[in-house]
Write a structure and sequence with these properties.
elongated; 131 residues; mainly beta; 9% helix; 6 strands; 3-stranded antiparallel beta sheet; single chain
Length: 131
């Protein structure tokens, strides 16, 4: 949104000793790019650095794709109310989603698939009314 651009890590990019970019412009600052939520990357011709945001309290706990609250089974699925962890690990196939930030879960019984985000969506903050 407008004005809500995330700022990257405060640590500067460390160039190699023989970096051509630094030789051409010693004051150059390589910008950090957020490639995935909480994962930052800085890339130069001399190399690439990565930074991972530490977990913070406002992100919440990581969701569990095997927890019944995240299930989206078909209505007729015989295991839609199953909570036995051993059985769930057998019937549910969990893998990383294509876009990152979520898991793709498939049930072998009802052949349904659904997404489970890695972290719950933060609550919306309502803006105060104008004065």
């Amino acid at each position: 949104m407008f004005g809500l651009k995330k700022k990257g890590p405060t640590q500067p990019f460390t160039h190699a000793d023989d970096c051509k970019i630094v030789k051409a412009d010693p004051t150059v600052q390589i910008e950090w790019s957020e490639v995935e939520t909480g994962h930052w990357e800085a890339r130069c011709v001399c190399g690439t650095e990565y930074f991972h945001d530490p977990f913070t309290e406002d992100r919440g706990d990581r969701l569990d794709p095997y927890h019944p609250s995240t299930f989206r089974h078909a209505g007729e699925c015989e295991h839609r109310d199953t909570s036995d962890p051993a059985l769930l690990r057998v019937i549910l196939k969990v893998r990383d989603g294509a876009g990152g930030g979520y898991w793709w879960v498939e049930c072998a019984t009802c052949e349904h698939g659904w997404q489970v985000p890695h972290y719950p969506r933060p609550p919306m903050r309502l803006m105060p009314p104008p004065k």
